[in-house]
């Protein structure tokens, strides 16, 4: 079987997984095969039942993936891979991900962060990246929800830094929220604003880092289009891919 995850990345992932209680990690070959299967699913976006047989039983692989998400393994793995966060400044933004028709119909009355916007049936990925363009935090929202709704939750742990955002985040309440945490808002005012803020235009140009991050994420077919019915499953793939990005 060809390994798509480089050896040095697998070793770092495996080193953390061995510290997690409640999962079987003694057999590094088994763990390698499982992680390769999840990487294959994320990269190609194929249906679970089409997973190549050399990765093992497709449904057992997916059930294990869901158990790990429920136990918080993917969350802890993503955080553990963040070896150095450059806190000179941060950038926030959101991107729309079109949802495939198979993502609908999980449970009646449950939106699972899916909504209908002008772009169609979709999910919004709200992301915070550091000054090196590495993802620090993700939040999911329905595609028809405005970016500003998740903004405070994204930056609530930041202190004494600068936050870059586009005009979608030009909201007095959000700017005041940043000031309370001694953060500078590098967010341009809207054209119809009565009092326009002065911002560092040179620093604002660095906001492209969050767009580059989205581009890297969308190399993975299962993230570029949402096939997962549940938010938990979709977030699991996001966290796994985010961990890989940190280690490259």
Précis, in short:
With 248 residues, this protein is of the alpha/beta class. The chain has helices at 7-17, 28-44, 58-71, 73-80, 151-155, 172-180, 201-204, 208-217, 221-224, 231-247, and strands at 90-99, 115-117, 120-129, 135-142, 162-164, 184-186, 225-226.
Write up this protein.
By secondary structure, the protein is α/β, with parallel strands linked by helices. It folds into two domains: 7-80, no CATH class; 90-226, 2-Layer Sandwich (Nucleotidyltransferase, domain 5). It is built from ten helices and seven strands. Strands 1, 2, 3, 4, 5, 6 and 7 form a seven-stranded mixed β-sheet that branches. Strand 2 (115-117) and strand 3 (120-129) form a beta hairpin. It is globular. The two termini are 22 Å apart.
The helicity comes to 25-40%
Principal-axes shape call: globular
- Tell me the series of helices and strands, N- to C-terminal: HHHHEEEEHEHEHHHEH
CATH class of the largest domain: Alpha Beta
Head-to-tail CA distance between termini: 22 Å
Q: How many alpha or pi helices?
A: 10
Instruction: Kindly name the structural category.
Output: alpha/beta
Question: Within the CATH hierarchy, at the fold level, what is the topology of the largest domain?
Answer: Nucleotidyltransferase, domain 5
Proportion in β-strands: 15-25%
* Number of separate structural domains: 2
Q: Which secondary structure elements does this structure contain, and how are they paired or packed?
A:
Blueprint (H helix, E strand, L loop, with lengths): L6 H11 L10 H17 L13 H14 L1 H8 L9 E10 L15 E3 L2 E10 L5 E8 L8 H5 L6 E3 L7 H9 L3 E3 L14 H4 L3 H10 L3 H4 E2 L4 H17 L1
Parallel strand pairs: 1-5, 1-7, 5-6
Antiparallel strand pairs: 1-3, 2-3, 3-4
Helix pairs in contact: 4-10
